[in-house]
Amino acid sequence: MIKIAYIGGGSKQWARVFMNDLALDEGDLCGEIALYDIDREAAERNRRIGMRIGNCPEARHKWSYTVSGTLDEALAGATFVVLSILPGTFDEMEVDVHAPEKYGVYQSVGDTVGPGGVLRAMRTVPLYEGFARAIKRCCPKAWVINFTNPMSICVKTLYDVFPEIKAFGCCHEVFHAQNFLCAVLHEQLGVPRPDRHELYTDACGVNHFTWITEAKWRNVDVLSLLPDFLQKYYRSGYYSGSLTAEQARTDPFCYNNRVKMDLYRRFGVLGAAGDRHLAEFVSNKWYMSDPRQVEEWGFHLTPVSYRKARQQERIEESIRLADGTQAVQPHRSDEEAVRLMKALLGCGTVVSNVNIVNVGQMPQMPLGAVVETNCVFDSDSVRPVTAKQLPSDVCNLVYRNCVNIETCYYGIKQRNLQMIFESFVNQPLCSSLDMAQARSLFEEMLVGTRKYLDEFYDLQAFLDNK
Amino acid sequence: MIKIAYIGGGSKQWARVFMNDLALDEGDLCGEIALYDIDREAAERNRRIGMRIGNCPEARHKWSYTVSGTLDEALAGATFVVLSILPGTFDEMEVDVHAPEKYGVYQSVGDTVGPGGVLRAMRTVPLYEGFARAIKRCCPKAWVINFTNPMSICVKTLYDVFPEIKAFGCCHEVFHAQNFLCAVLHEQLGVPRPDRHELYTDACGVNHFTWITEAKWRNVDVLSLLPDFLQKYYRSGYYSGSLTAEQARTDPFCYNNRVKMDLYRRFGVLGAAGDRHLAEFVSNKWYMSDPRQVEEWGFHLTPVSYRKARQQERIEESIRLADGTQAVQPHRSDEEAVRLMKALLGCGTVVSNVNIVNVGQMPQMPLGAVVETNCVFDSDSVRPVTAKQLPSDVCNLVYRNCVNIETCYYGIKQRNLQMIFESFVNQPLCSSLDMAQARSLFEEMLVGTRKYLDEFYDLQAFLDNK
Amino acid sequence: MIKIAYIGGGSKQWARVFMNDLALDEGDLCGEIALYDIDREAAERNRRIGMRIGNCPEARHKWSYTVSGTLDEALAGATFVVLSILPGTFDEMEVDVHAPEKYGVYQSVGDTVGPGGVLRAMRTVPLYEGFARAIKRCCPKAWVINFTNPMSICVKTLYDVFPEIKAFGCCHEVFHAQNFLCAVLHEQLGVPRPDRHELYTDACGVNHFTWITEAKWRNVDVLSLLPDFLQKYYRSGYYSGSLTAEQARTDPFCYNNRVKMDLYRRFGVLGAAGDRHLAEFVSNKWYMSDPRQVEEWGFHLTPVSYRKARQQERIEESIRLADGTQAVQPHRSDEEAVRLMKALLGCGTVVSNVNIVNVGQMPQMPLGAVVETNCVFDSDSVRPVTAKQLPSDVCNLVYRNCVNIETCYYGIKQRNLQMIFESFVNQPLCSSLDMAQARSLFEEMLVGTRKYLDEFYDLQAFLDNK
Amino acid sequence: MIKIAYIGGGSKQWARVFMNDLALDEGDLCGEIALYDIDREAAERNRRIGMRIGNCPEARHKWSYTVSGTLDEALAGATFVVLSILPGTFDEMEVDVHAPEKYGVYQSVGDTVGPGGVLRAMRTVPLYEGFARAIKRCCPKAWVINFTNPMSICVKTLYDVFPEIKAFGCCHEVFHAQNFLCAVLHEQLGVPRPDRHELYTDACGVNHFTWITEAKWRNVDVLSLLPDFLQKYYRSGYYSGSLTAEQARTDPFCYNNRVKMDLYRRFGVLGAAGDRHLAEFVSNKWYMSDPRQVEEWGFHLTPVSYRKARQQERIEESIRLADGTQAVQPHRSDEEAVRLMKALLGCGTVVSNVNIVNVGQMPQMPLGAVVETNCVFDSDSVRPVTAKQLPSDVCNLVYRNCVNIETCYYGIKQRNLQMIFESFVNQPLCSSLDMAQARSLFEEMLVGTRKYLDEFYDLQAFLDNK
Question: In angstroms, what separates the C-alpha of A58 from chain B's closest C-alpha?
Fold first, then answer.
């Protein structure tokens, strides 16, 4: 019987995936889930959906769901804490993603790095400082699983504020690259497409800009199959899931892996996240000079209007699911969180890639920065696995982002807008901006999202000091 | 269908354990085992024993066994190479272990560190230089599993001569400490004694001088149970296996864990090898000033005469097993080699402690030295897991031995007897020797084992240069 | 009596400065200077100029000058080797500097980093590989002083080919920043402008992109004077030497320190090279978007036509000086080479900034890369001084260039044009280029300078592989 | 006009040397010296002696001397702080040095490492914690020069308590080794014995256990002269100063460099402190098994009775000097403190070996430990110079002591007697002790000096917990 505190428990997507995975898991994990959200109504809906999932015939476990009135109430006595919030609203995200377009800077996601990532971090870090202090106060021994972006900077904040915290950040982007390699195995060797868990991959980097330096399937060196595979698919691209041409053309989350393949062609190691993410960590002149170039590289910009519309649909669906006018249909996801939680509870060993503070697993990156590598999960333990070295040119690209994130974090910690601005102008996506443009854009974005910033920063002094 | 080259294939003990484990394993590993030994007759006997094991009803796999006339023949095309030799004979080991006694230096094992370890290393390294070159020549992609002592220096030699080698060293000593902790769990919590695989331990150090810095069983912090356990057993000692008082008193391999408990009491982390081994890495005044003190600490010196007698019995048993006058009775051991091999072939992920070159898994030890930590085994991959930091006083004890081993290795590599001697006098077991005694002992030991040394070193010049 | 081998001994500028400094030095250094140049005539002219300098009344030492027919002849028995060559001719440099302009990439110097730096490195490294082998062969104990650009990559080549070499790279750019700080002291405190040797500066970085993190004059913290100084001069700029408005406007080597001051304003540490150099290590959108922006920042682009014209004048002057139709007028320079040489010969301790392999003096940069920091020069010894840490944002800018240089070097070493290209596209000066433009520019530059490349690289294969 | 706070200003020896050096220096350093001592009378005597020195005809500077009633009064406004105290009295030192003799442990000095060093550290650290806090409070920008032993642990305390402190530790032991090498130059090359400042030495290690890895005089590799020199003097020993046979035999501070030469013979690098100190950092079986062996190695044990007698003489002399019945006769010493102070004030660059926190100057030692290497002194700046690597066997000896000191310090900081005891038993001088003896000795020493310990540690609990 365990207690899971779910912060951001009104989530329309992740919470539902998580509730399904918990209900369907064949292990014997069970207990209470305490939902907490500043949108209490949404948490309440999820509570009811969770109970309906537990009542499904497919459900193996019936978790009890509660809604907490305060953060501290949710955290009290928790074994696990899940952090999965939206910092600000989609209105702020609209500024993050679209304000830069006037300046010729396009972003496919805008929640990790690039101008949008910096502004989002400015809103997020102060909240996470509060979470870290609350966890220290209420459940210092709990395992904390972060799903929120910007991932690296969220995890960094938790450890910097409360160094003894037992936290890690989970992300599924590497899984997509593993699935891609499974497709490559199938294509090149004619074997049935293996499950990604049959592969061993050595992945490392910073979240959303990870690299697979080695991939083995039995005794097959999977990366060595890529040159032939690229002969066929480098120009056309390759969708590793099944989808219609219409979807490929219109779903803003789709991509045909051309960016990933191009990075392999250039560097000999595989970019190991969705192409939409990878493209945000390199010069905007490489893959996102303009919307046309984005299309050529086989991915899409994700307009926030799309997110808003989807969000509205999901809310409506939530209401139907909560009141029973639509039936819940639980199914298992490809996420690993539940698997990792079971390993932490002593049900076997799992190796998976997560985001955690660098204690030497990536000797090429600064100690203390948050990096993503394989880690061993076992009874109440997470230990990072040493990663293979990145080639020097790739290391350089990763290091630049890794230190940008450090600079950005320490700038936010000190509420030092000049220091944050330096991490802003050094974003690879800002490569095409001159200093005046960068400053003007930064100021515009500050103003656009100031509702969430004024409490923490002295914006006015910075804006006045031309 | 794989090929395993077993070097030292006439082994009376390890080879048989290994053949049993292979035959009984529930996986689907199968193929050929090529035995090679300078004692061809012994290899031939093992071949016949291996076949008899395969014919047992309990056997799930029938491996084919061959005896190779040359090292290269054995290695050609191997998927795995097992190295398990006795460097020299028990006559030389008699000098290693007993010559120092005249000088008041006692050794419980004498094959790893201490005066015996240094001399044994001097015989072993030149052989391993040859193995490394042969592997490079015949099967450069094979996985090489070392069982020979001195473990660290054998693995070091392999990597130094052929840096691309895929080698690691397996040792069961940490398993004993894990079993001890399982007994502690049983004693203190009253739960049924768990299997050691249910524990997660963070073990690190150099082979035979490893330390458990964290041990978790489900959500139980196992080390935190030790203070109460020590209240009961620190003075009396505690045997973690079942054995008779007579065995405890007379079996030179038995020990009652007092050394291990004493190290925990002093340092707060658990010595994680057999007490016989642990005691050889610290000042001989701590646990082995004289035979009486050894008995007080609940372990035994292992006279080589005992090994010789046991060896003779084993040879006779081998003859009977080979010719069928004694029936083979295969049973599974607690060793991990077969489990690791299966992981390397792609049958799942295994985390286990092995000896491998330090690439950062122990940042407190020199890079390039051989250390023992957890490693992740998966398809054609071994990656070290970063270990928790040792307390500074323990780190100091480990570092001293780790660098002694490095100095000893480089001295042997350069055939520089002065440099080897410096690693000899700096052995903690030589703490009670003054320089003249140390020199005299070293010379005596050189002379006593010179049959195996003269080919490689200019002993005479060193002996003449008083 | 020492022998100095001067490789590139036909130099029209550096050789003359060096001959003057040697002749006028008040120490008692004396001996032979062996000039070697592929333009033997130029070396011959310098020989005669050198003799004329020795005959001047001001000269304290009369060095003997010889012209060597071969590299080995020059090097044989040398105590010091000076390397000061032009890799290729100004025709190739014209391609280096001006070809990128069509693509909107401007370069103020074009000999260190940026597109020009990469191409120049491609010509230079193969020559330096030869120098390193010749030094190993002819004078392995000689001290080797490099003046050639690209500095870092020249020094890297020497150490990589011949690790025991005793080499370092000298550059005067930090001195200019020290002179600037002396001017600041004068301006802000009203004291007579001190000599730069009275300051202690902690400078570090990569050559031409060095940073002063601390500057002390007696008990004055000189950097702390900058905020007030910038109030006065940030907008107008400040020339630290005396020069006419006409010179400031037209001399392409002049700059008014606005870039340096801007870097200080942004990062709190001082860019410590000429502004023309500093600007080449950051995004071309910062200070060199176009010629107009360059002028606004108070420095100039240096057209190669200017260098050619100046070169012609210098040749003519050399002819007059050599044949005596123009009198030599020796005077001391601000260069440190002679001072460092004397320290190496045992005449006192000198601390000065030079370029040498990183052994830990800059823990933030990769070990083995060439960095510039203070070093202690004394009898036959150069030891790097540990530098203060750079702020993380500055460290990021330096690291990017440092690893670019490493990637570029290893690409050239392996004659791997794809790897060289990756270092090319990652140049901050190429920030505004998309991949197609970068590739097209790179190919154009390869073709433009192929006379010096075809011997070493398989250009055609690369050019064909679109 | 500067102010120097001299803590321990009643010193009978160091203070006088320092006052002389200040008075005779040819620079233009002048100002006030504030003497502070718990023995105010002694400080008062020194004040009067200082004034008399200033009145001598030889004196170039007349410093003003004051006696401060409190530590804070002395420190207020100081430019420099000199720390030079005796922790406890010679009665406690008598226990430090002689209590171990009953257990067969002899100490030549007993104030740095070994049992005496640990006990002395236990008395000293709490005092230094107070000094660090007072300096932070009263003169945070002052340069702090430590002369007190145990040097490493004093400097460590200062930095650990007040990380921004500008402190270093000065010791003359390396100078003695430099003088020895000057004598070697004279002996082997027949040149006039050079001044030690003409040599360049690369010295590193921990205080009193430093090593010269390179020594150059002009272009001469001085260490390369040692093998021939040892042919002559290894057995007989060699006194590098002039002294009578009687002095050599009886002055307990004399030694004939046999230990130093033996270390060179064994390791190829030169032990670079007085033999009395070097011998304390290695197994007591090497050079100090018993008084006879000490004599054979050409040095002496220094009985505290000798120190007491000498102290008495010095007090009497002080009284005479203070009241004028004995004339002051100022002369310059070989100490470097005044030279370093002048460099810090901006009067030139000095490179000298001092003790400071490891920031990378010795990559083989733990960062944050106090090490001794060359440092560059210049205007308000001290920067460590990277040291050459020690051979692995020497590194091992140094590392053991370095980490012992760290463990001892952290044990004291935490008032953790078990942890202190572990650093005690791991002292090389305790090599011959078994655990029971070590414990018994440690307890005896605690009791013997408890007057200075009870305030800080819970001795009784430790003594009761057998």
Answer: 28
